[in-house]
Specification:
Oligomer: single chain
Protein name: Thiamine-phosphate synthase
Number of helices: 10
Cofactor: Mg(2+)
Helix content: 25-40%
GO molecular function, one term: thiamine-phosphate diphosphorylase activity
Radius of gyration: 16 Å
Function: Condenses 4-methyl-5-(beta-hydroxyethyl)thiazole monophosphate (THZ-P) and 2-methyl-4-amino-5-hydroxymethyl pyrimidine pyrophosphate (HMP-PP) to form thiamine monophosphate (TMP).
Bound molecules: 4-methyl-5-hydroxyethylthiazole phosphate, magnesium ion
Strand content: 15-25%
Strand order of the largest sheet: 1-2-3-4-5-6-7-8
Largest sheet: 8 strands, parallel, barrel
Shape: globular
Order of helices and strands: HEHEHEHEHEHEHEHEHH
Domain Thiamine phosphate synthase/TenI: 10-191
Distance between the termini: 14 Å
Number of strands: 8
Length: 213
């Protein structure tokens, strides 16, 4: 679990449109060189076959880095590509179904936006929580009401699972996120939308949750 907390420290969620200039694979390559510790392939418009192909390409790009690859929403693509896991939301298949498809050894993340959804999580099924959105963001049009740092801290306090904060986060939010008790920050536009993804990732360098190397 300590390993997973460390892997959640700087979590890149990809967006094909924001990565369009150099592509998702090259964005990931550069972002990992800049310090990204976890990658999620998120493409709302792709088919399972397309996600599987891209996941295989990303896996090859990540080989030897120790950075896990998770697939958003599509647990079948995650299993087909033998990715490191999947991340699902409240509107996707149940966590029990996702776990059954992934098997016991893969990482399963779940988005939670409210205290009740955090309380409802089965910690024997889910490995980590994605919490937020902390702030409003144009990246996810239909996002829930932002929590702010106080709301984030309240969600974190309800679970002992590893967690990652998401939503409108930039490198100058590091202190606010850290003092809320998060294990890490998940970002899309702070890295994908930038001309230099490596430098953009490096800007988060000082995010080291207390007591962790
Ligand atoms: N889930 C909640 S907010 C969000 C997702 C996928 C998008 C976050 O994007 P950004 O650009 O880091 O604000
Ligand atoms: Mg989803």
């Amino acid at each position: 679990m300590a390993a997973l907390r460390n892997q959640l420290r700087l979590y890149l969620v990809t967006d094909p449109e924001l990565c369009a200039q150099i592509g998702v694979v090259e964005t990931v390559r550069r972002a990992v060189a800049g310090g990204v510790t976890m990658v999620q392939l998120r493409d709302k418009h792709a088919t399972t076959a397309q996600r599987t192909d891209l996941a295989v390409a990303l896996k090859a790009a990540l080989q030897g880095t120790g950075v896990p690859l998770l697939i958003n929403d599509d647990v079948v693509a995650a299993a087909a590509a033998d990715a490191d896991g999947a991340h699902i939301g409240q509107g996707d298949i149940s966590t029990a179904q996702a776990r059954a498809i992934l098997g016991p050894d893969k990482i399963l993340g779940l988005s939670c936006e409210t205290p009740q959804t955090v309380r409802d999580v089965d910690p024997l099924i889910v490995d980590y929580l994605g919490l937020g959105p902390v702030f409003g963001t144009a990246t996810k049009a239909d996002h829930a009401q932002p929590t702010g740092f106080d709301g984030l801290a309240r969600l974190i306090a309800l679970s002992s699972l590893p967690n990652v904060a998401i939503g409108g986060l930039k490198s100058d939010h590091i202190n606010g996120v850290m003092s809320s008790g998060a294990d890490g920050m998940a970002v899309v536009s702070a890295i994908c939308g930038q001309s230099d993804p490596q430098a953009a990732a490096r800007a988060f360098d000082t995010f080291k949750p207390e007591g962790r190397p």
